[in-house]
Amino acid sequence: MLESLRIQGFRKYKDFSLDGFGQINFVLGDNNVGKTSLLEAIYAWACGKSVLPLTFTPLARGRYYGISSPYWVMEELLATVNNRKQLPLMMSFEACADGNLVSFTHKITPSDLLTEYDSSYKRIPDGIVPRSNGHLDTTVAGGSALNPVQPTIVARWEVEDAQGDKSTIDLTVPQIQVSEIRPFRSAKYIDVLSYISVVENVQMYSSLKRERLMREVVEAIGTSFPEISDFDVIPYPDGSQAPVSAVRVDGESLPLYAYGDGVQKWFYVLGAMSLYKNAIVCIDEVDSGLHPGAQVDFSVSIIKSALRNGVQLFLTTHNIEFLDHFLNGLSEMDDVPEDRIRIITLREIDGEVKVRNLGADEAHEARESFNLELR
Description:
Mean pLDDT: 85
Structural class: alpha/beta
CATH topology of the largest domain: Rossmann fold
Number of domains: 2
Shape: globular
Distance between the termini: 25 Å
CATH architecture of the largest domain: 3-Layer(aba) Sandwich
Order of helices and strands: EEEHHEEHEEEHHEEEHEHEHEEH
Radius of gyration: 22 Å
Largest sheet: 6 strands, antiparallel
CATH class of the largest domain: Alpha Beta
CATH superfamily of the largest domain: P-loop containing nucleotide triphosphate hydrolases
Number of helices: 9
Number of strands: 15
Low-confidence stretches: none
Protein backbone atom coordinates (compact mmCIF):
# COMPACT_ATOMS: atom_id res chain seq x y z
CA MET A 1 0.00 0.00 0.00
CA LEU A 2 1.16 3.53 -0.79
CA GLU A 3 2.06 5.23 2.49
CA SER A 4 3.61 8.55 1.50
CA LEU A 5 4.47 10.58 -1.60
CA ARG A 6 6.94 13.33 -2.49
CA ILE A 7 6.33 15.34 -5.67
CA GLN A 8 9.01 17.53 -7.23
CA GLY A 9 8.61 19.71 -10.30
CA PHE A 10 5.12 18.55 -11.28
CA ARG A 11 2.29 20.99 -12.07
CA LYS A 12 2.04 23.49 -9.20
CA TYR A 13 4.14 21.34 -6.87
CA LYS A 14 7.74 22.50 -6.74
CA ASP A 15 8.48 20.25 -3.77
CA PHE A 16 5.55 18.77 -1.85
CA SER A 17 5.28 15.82 0.50
CA LEU A 18 2.26 14.06 1.97
CA ASP A 19 2.16 11.02 4.24
CA GLY A 20 -0.29 9.04 6.33
CA PHE A 21 -2.32 7.54 3.50
CA GLY A 22 -4.95 4.93 4.30
CA GLN A 23 -6.64 2.41 2.05
CA ILE A 24 -9.40 4.88 1.14
CA ASN A 25 -8.32 8.53 0.89
CA PHE A 26 -10.64 11.48 0.33
CA VAL A 27 -8.85 14.59 -0.96
CA LEU A 28 -10.65 17.93 -0.55
CA GLY A 29 -9.78 21.56 -1.13
CA ASP A 30 -10.50 24.71 -3.09
CA ASN A 31 -10.36 24.94 -6.87
CA ASN A 32 -6.80 24.92 -8.23
CA VAL A 33 -5.28 23.89 -4.90
CA GLY A 34 -3.82 20.75 -6.53
CA LYS A 35 -6.28 17.90 -5.83
CA THR A 36 -6.33 16.55 -9.38
CA SER A 37 -2.58 17.07 -9.69
CA LEU A 38 -2.06 14.97 -6.55
CA LEU A 39 -4.05 12.09 -8.08
CA GLU A 40 -2.11 12.45 -11.33
CA ALA A 41 1.18 12.36 -9.41
CA ILE A 42 0.13 9.15 -7.65
CA TYR A 43 -0.76 7.65 -11.02
CA ALA A 44 2.55 8.84 -12.53
CA TRP A 45 4.49 7.19 -9.69
CA ALA A 46 2.57 3.94 -10.19
CA CYS A 47 3.42 4.00 -13.91
CA GLY A 48 7.12 3.90 -13.00
CA LYS A 49 9.25 3.81 -16.17
CA SER A 50 6.20 3.13 -18.36
CA VAL A 51 5.85 6.43 -20.21
CA LEU A 52 3.03 5.74 -22.65
CA PRO A 53 0.15 5.90 -20.09
CA LEU A 54 1.37 9.36 -19.08
CA THR A 55 0.78 10.71 -22.59
CA PHE A 56 -2.92 10.24 -21.89
CA THR A 57 -2.99 11.04 -18.18
CA PRO A 58 -1.67 13.32 -16.81
CA LEU A 59 0.01 14.95 -19.84
CA ALA A 60 -3.12 16.03 -21.70
CA ARG A 61 -5.86 14.92 -19.29
CA GLY A 62 -7.44 12.64 -21.86
CA ARG A 63 -6.95 14.88 -24.90
CA TYR A 64 -3.73 13.54 -26.47
CA TYR A 65 -5.26 10.91 -28.75
CA GLY A 66 -7.55 13.53 -30.29
CA ILE A 67 -4.83 16.16 -30.76
CA SER A 68 -3.41 16.60 -34.26
CA SER A 69 -1.30 19.72 -33.57
CA PRO A 70 2.23 19.15 -32.21
CA TYR A 71 2.16 22.71 -30.84
CA TRP A 72 -0.82 21.79 -28.71
CA VAL A 73 1.04 18.78 -27.29
CA MET A 74 4.08 21.00 -26.63
CA GLU A 75 1.85 23.39 -24.71
CA GLU A 76 0.36 20.54 -22.67
CA LEU A 77 3.86 19.24 -21.95
CA LEU A 78 5.09 22.60 -20.68
CA ALA A 79 2.01 22.85 -18.45
CA THR A 80 2.88 19.49 -16.87
CA VAL A 81 6.12 20.65 -15.24
CA ASN A 82 6.59 23.26 -12.54
CA ASN A 83 9.64 24.95 -14.09
CA ARG A 84 9.11 25.31 -17.83
CA LYS A 85 12.14 27.56 -18.39
CA GLN A 86 14.79 25.06 -17.31
CA LEU A 87 15.79 22.52 -19.95
CA PRO A 88 15.56 19.61 -19.93
CA LEU A 89 12.19 19.69 -18.18
CA MET A 90 12.38 17.76 -14.91
CA MET A 91 9.94 16.20 -12.45
CA SER A 92 10.19 13.33 -9.97
CA PHE A 93 7.96 11.16 -7.82
CA GLU A 94 9.16 9.35 -4.69
CA ALA A 95 6.93 7.20 -2.52
CA CYS A 96 7.09 4.79 0.35
CA ALA A 97 5.01 1.73 -0.44
CA ASP A 98 4.84 -1.42 1.71
CA GLY A 99 7.83 -0.11 3.64
CA ASN A 100 10.02 0.43 0.56
CA LEU A 101 11.15 3.78 -0.84
CA VAL A 102 10.73 3.90 -4.64
CA SER A 103 11.49 6.90 -6.88
CA PHE A 104 11.29 7.81 -10.56
CA THR A 105 12.88 10.87 -12.17
CA HIS A 106 11.54 12.20 -15.48
CA LYS A 107 13.79 14.13 -17.87
CA ILE A 108 11.94 15.59 -20.86
CA THR A 109 13.96 17.14 -23.69
CA PRO A 110 11.78 19.17 -26.10
CA SER A 111 12.43 19.13 -29.84
CA ASP A 112 13.36 22.24 -31.81
CA LEU A 113 9.62 22.69 -32.31
CA LEU A 114 9.80 24.47 -28.96
CA THR A 115 11.63 27.47 -30.42
CA GLU A 116 8.77 28.00 -32.88
CA TYR A 117 6.15 27.61 -30.16
CA ASP A 118 7.96 30.17 -27.97
CA SER A 119 10.83 32.18 -29.45
CA SER A 120 12.23 32.98 -26.00
CA TYR A 121 13.67 29.46 -25.90
CA LYS A 122 16.06 30.37 -28.74
CA ARG A 123 18.30 31.78 -26.03
CA ILE A 124 18.80 28.26 -24.71
CA PRO A 125 21.14 26.48 -27.14
CA ASP A 126 21.38 23.15 -25.29
CA GLY A 127 18.77 20.56 -24.47
CA ILE A 128 16.95 20.50 -27.80
CA VAL A 129 16.45 17.46 -30.05
CA PRO A 130 15.49 17.49 -33.77
CA ARG A 131 11.75 17.33 -34.44
CA SER A 132 12.28 14.59 -37.03
CA ASN A 133 14.32 11.42 -36.94
CA GLY A 134 13.75 10.76 -40.64
CA HIS A 135 11.51 7.81 -39.81
CA LEU A 136 8.45 7.30 -42.02
CA ASP A 137 5.78 5.28 -40.24
CA THR A 138 2.86 3.35 -41.72
CA THR A 139 1.36 2.25 -38.40
CA VAL A 140 0.01 5.64 -37.37
CA ALA A 141 -3.32 7.05 -38.47
CA GLY A 142 -3.20 8.00 -42.15
CA GLY A 143 -0.02 6.07 -42.83
CA SER A 144 0.31 3.34 -45.46
CA ALA A 145 3.04 1.73 -47.51
CA LEU A 146 2.21 4.11 -50.36
CA ASN A 147 1.57 7.13 -48.17
CA PRO A 148 3.81 6.94 -45.07
CA VAL A 149 3.53 9.53 -42.29
CA GLN A 150 6.46 11.55 -40.96
CA PRO A 151 5.78 11.87 -37.21
CA THR A 152 6.77 15.15 -35.57
CA ILE A 153 8.85 14.64 -32.45
CA VAL A 154 7.61 16.93 -29.68
CA ALA A 155 10.04 15.71 -27.01
CA ARG A 156 12.26 12.87 -25.88
CA TRP A 157 10.97 11.53 -22.55
CA GLU A 158 13.31 9.60 -20.25
CA VAL A 159 12.46 8.02 -16.90
CA GLU A 160 15.14 6.77 -14.50
CA ASP A 161 14.62 4.79 -11.32
CA ALA A 162 16.76 4.92 -8.18
CA GLN A 163 18.92 2.07 -9.48
CA GLY A 164 19.82 3.99 -12.64
CA ASP A 165 17.68 1.90 -15.02
CA LYS A 166 16.16 4.04 -17.76
CA SER A 167 13.30 3.99 -20.25
CA THR A 168 13.07 6.45 -23.17
CA ILE A 169 10.46 7.19 -25.83
CA ASP A 170 9.93 9.92 -28.41
CA LEU A 171 6.70 11.80 -27.82
CA THR A 172 5.28 12.35 -31.31
CA VAL A 173 2.28 13.60 -33.25
CA PRO A 174 0.79 11.40 -34.59
CA GLN A 175 1.69 9.00 -31.81
CA ILE A 176 3.92 6.13 -32.94
CA GLN A 177 3.15 2.66 -31.63
CA VAL A 178 6.00 1.73 -29.30
CA SER A 179 6.87 -1.31 -27.24
CA GLU A 180 6.02 -0.58 -23.62
CA ILE A 181 7.47 -1.86 -20.38
CA ARG A 182 5.10 -2.78 -17.60
CA PRO A 183 4.07 -0.12 -15.07
CA PHE A 184 5.69 -0.36 -11.67
CA ARG A 185 2.32 -0.90 -9.99
CA SER A 186 -1.11 -1.60 -11.39
CA ALA A 187 -3.17 1.61 -11.34
CA LYS A 188 -6.32 3.08 -12.87
CA TYR A 189 -7.10 6.76 -13.29
CA ILE A 190 -10.80 7.66 -13.60
CA ASP A 191 -11.68 11.21 -14.60
CA VAL A 192 -15.13 12.77 -14.89
CA LEU A 193 -15.71 11.30 -18.38
CA SER A 194 -14.03 7.89 -18.16
CA TYR A 195 -17.33 6.06 -17.69
CA ILE A 196 -18.50 6.89 -21.23
CA SER A 197 -15.94 4.47 -22.74
CA VAL A 198 -17.96 1.70 -24.43
CA VAL A 199 -14.93 -0.60 -24.81
CA GLU A 200 -13.94 -0.35 -21.15
CA ASN A 201 -17.51 -0.91 -20.01
CA VAL A 202 -17.51 -4.21 -21.93
CA GLN A 203 -14.26 -5.12 -20.14
CA MET A 204 -15.88 -4.26 -16.80
CA TYR A 205 -18.86 -6.41 -17.67
CA SER A 206 -16.64 -9.37 -18.58
CA SER A 207 -14.65 -9.04 -15.36
CA LEU A 208 -17.76 -8.88 -13.20
CA LYS A 209 -19.25 -11.93 -14.92
CA ARG A 210 -16.03 -13.95 -14.57
CA GLU A 211 -15.73 -13.06 -10.90
CA ARG A 212 -19.45 -13.80 -10.34
CA LEU A 213 -19.88 -10.31 -8.92
CA MET A 214 -22.54 -9.05 -11.30
CA ARG A 215 -25.41 -9.81 -8.94
CA GLU A 216 -23.69 -7.83 -6.18
CA VAL A 217 -23.31 -4.82 -8.50
CA VAL A 218 -26.93 -5.10 -9.64
CA GLU A 219 -28.13 -5.19 -6.05
CA ALA A 220 -25.98 -2.19 -5.12
CA ILE A 221 -27.21 -0.13 -8.06
CA GLY A 222 -30.76 -1.37 -7.43
CA THR A 223 -30.88 0.45 -4.09
CA SER A 224 -31.15 3.71 -6.04
CA PHE A 225 -32.29 2.42 -9.45
CA PRO A 226 -34.79 -0.38 -8.68
CA GLU A 227 -35.96 -0.54 -12.30
CA ILE A 228 -32.64 -2.23 -13.29
CA SER A 229 -32.63 -6.00 -12.82
CA ASP A 230 -29.42 -7.00 -14.64
CA PHE A 231 -26.73 -6.05 -17.16
CA ASP A 232 -26.02 -7.93 -20.36
CA VAL A 233 -24.03 -7.77 -23.59
CA ILE A 234 -26.12 -8.92 -26.54
CA PRO A 235 -24.13 -9.17 -29.81
CA TYR A 236 -25.60 -7.54 -32.90
CA PRO A 237 -27.21 -9.83 -35.56
CA ASP A 238 -23.94 -9.95 -37.52
CA GLY A 239 -22.07 -11.14 -34.43
CA SER A 240 -20.21 -7.85 -33.88
CA GLN A 241 -19.55 -6.43 -30.44
CA ALA A 242 -22.40 -4.51 -28.82
CA PRO A 243 -22.22 -2.17 -25.80
CA VAL A 244 -23.31 -3.14 -22.30
CA SER A 245 -27.07 -2.94 -21.84
CA ALA A 246 -29.10 -2.49 -18.68
CA VAL A 247 -31.95 -4.99 -18.37
CA ARG A 248 -35.11 -3.55 -16.84
CA VAL A 249 -37.46 -5.43 -14.53
CA ASP A 250 -40.04 -5.43 -17.34
CA GLY A 251 -37.60 -7.36 -19.56
CA GLU A 252 -36.72 -4.44 -21.84
CA SER A 253 -33.06 -3.62 -22.48
CA LEU A 254 -31.40 -0.30 -23.20
CA PRO A 255 -27.73 0.48 -23.88
CA LEU A 256 -25.98 1.62 -20.71
CA TYR A 257 -25.10 4.93 -22.35
CA ALA A 258 -28.84 5.67 -22.75
CA TYR A 259 -29.08 5.98 -18.95
CA GLY A 260 -28.04 8.95 -16.85
CA ASP A 261 -24.55 9.62 -15.56
CA GLY A 262 -25.30 8.07 -12.16
CA VAL A 263 -26.03 4.57 -13.48
CA GLN A 264 -23.10 4.68 -15.91
CA LYS A 265 -20.64 5.89 -13.29
CA TRP A 266 -21.78 3.38 -10.67
CA PHE A 267 -21.33 0.48 -13.07
CA TYR A 268 -17.95 1.76 -14.32
CA VAL A 269 -16.43 2.45 -10.89
CA LEU A 270 -17.46 -0.90 -9.38
CA GLY A 271 -16.30 -2.66 -12.53
CA ALA A 272 -12.93 -0.89 -12.40
CA MET A 273 -12.31 -1.98 -8.83
CA SER A 274 -13.10 -5.56 -9.80
CA LEU A 275 -10.85 -5.36 -12.87
CA TYR A 276 -7.97 -3.66 -11.03
CA LYS A 277 -7.69 -5.85 -7.95
CA ASN A 278 -4.88 -5.04 -5.50
CA ALA A 279 -4.19 -1.86 -7.46
CA ILE A 280 -4.29 1.89 -6.96
CA VAL A 281 -7.49 3.50 -8.27
CA CYS A 282 -7.71 7.30 -8.51
CA ILE A 283 -11.16 8.83 -9.05
CA ASP A 284 -11.36 12.55 -9.76
CA GLU A 285 -14.58 14.32 -8.75
CA VAL A 286 -16.13 11.09 -7.52
CA ASP A 287 -19.49 12.79 -6.84
CA SER A 288 -19.94 13.96 -10.44
CA GLY A 289 -23.25 12.81 -11.93
CA LEU A 290 -24.63 11.35 -8.70
CA HIS A 291 -27.91 12.60 -7.24
CA PRO A 292 -27.70 13.31 -3.47
CA GLY A 293 -30.25 10.56 -2.84
CA ALA A 294 -27.89 7.95 -4.30
CA GLN A 295 -24.69 9.13 -2.65
CA VAL A 296 -24.88 7.15 0.60
CA ASP A 297 -25.56 3.87 -1.22
CA PHE A 298 -22.83 4.64 -3.75
CA SER A 299 -20.36 5.39 -0.95
CA VAL A 300 -21.11 2.13 0.84
CA SER A 301 -20.73 0.25 -2.46
CA ILE A 302 -17.28 1.66 -3.24
CA ILE A 303 -16.04 1.14 0.34
CA LYS A 304 -17.09 -2.52 0.27
CA SER A 305 -15.65 -3.02 -3.20
CA ALA A 306 -12.31 -1.43 -2.32
CA LEU A 307 -11.93 -3.57 0.82
CA ARG A 308 -13.01 -6.76 -0.97
CA ASN A 309 -10.67 -6.24 -3.92
CA GLY A 310 -7.64 -4.90 -2.04
CA VAL A 311 -7.88 -1.58 -3.90
CA GLN A 312 -6.24 1.55 -2.52
CA LEU A 313 -8.58 4.42 -3.40
CA PHE A 314 -7.80 8.09 -3.87
CA LEU A 315 -10.89 10.27 -4.38
CA THR A 316 -11.41 13.99 -4.90
CA THR A 317 -14.56 16.06 -4.46
CA HIS A 318 -15.63 19.68 -4.01
CA ASN A 319 -18.94 18.56 -2.58
CA ILE A 320 -19.16 18.69 1.23
CA GLU A 321 -22.62 17.10 1.00
CA PHE A 322 -21.12 14.07 -0.70
CA LEU A 323 -18.44 13.81 2.00
CA ASP A 324 -21.15 13.93 4.67
CA HIS A 325 -23.03 11.15 2.87
CA PHE A 326 -19.80 9.15 2.62
CA LEU A 327 -19.08 9.56 6.35
CA ASN A 328 -22.67 8.76 7.28
CA GLY A 329 -22.61 5.63 5.15
CA LEU A 330 -19.28 4.64 6.69
CA SER A 331 -20.62 5.14 10.23
CA GLU A 332 -23.29 2.52 9.54
CA MET A 333 -20.61 -0.06 8.68
CA ASP A 334 -19.14 -1.78 11.73
CA ASP A 335 -16.41 -3.76 9.96
CA VAL A 336 -14.18 -0.97 8.60
CA PRO A 337 -11.06 -0.25 10.74
CA GLU A 338 -10.57 3.43 11.58
CA ASP A 339 -7.08 3.59 10.07
CA ARG A 340 -8.33 2.46 6.64
CA ILE A 341 -10.01 5.80 5.86
CA ARG A 342 -8.31 9.22 5.68
CA ILE A 343 -9.85 12.62 4.97
CA ILE A 344 -7.15 14.89 3.52
CA THR A 345 -7.72 18.62 3.09
CA LEU A 346 -5.37 20.72 0.95
CA ARG A 347 -5.28 24.46 1.52
CA GLU A 348 -3.00 27.05 -0.04
CA ILE A 349 -1.61 29.54 2.48
CA ASP A 350 0.91 32.22 1.41
CA GLY A 351 1.67 30.32 -1.78
CA GLU A 352 2.32 27.01 0.00
CA VAL A 353 -0.02 24.01 0.08
CA LYS A 354 -0.78 22.92 3.64
CA VAL A 355 -2.29 19.56 4.60
CA ARG A 356 -4.80 18.46 7.25
CA ASN A 357 -5.11 14.68 7.53
CA LEU A 358 -7.96 13.26 9.65
CA GLY A 359 -9.24 9.79 10.34
CA ALA A 360 -12.83 9.02 9.40
CA ASP A 361 -14.08 9.16 13.00
CA GLU A 362 -12.35 12.50 13.58
CA ALA A 363 -13.81 13.92 10.39
CA HIS A 364 -17.30 12.64 11.19
CA GLU A 365 -17.17 14.16 14.68
CA ALA A 366 -15.90 17.45 13.24
CA ARG A 367 -18.81 17.61 10.82
CA GLU A 368 -21.53 16.35 13.17
CA SER A 369 -20.58 18.31 16.28
CA PHE A 370 -18.89 21.43 14.96
CA ASN A 371 -19.95 21.67 11.29
CA LEU A 372 -16.24 22.07 10.54
CA GLU A 373 -15.41 23.05 6.95
CA LEU A 374 -13.24 20.25 5.57
CA ARG A 375 -12.97 21.39 1.96
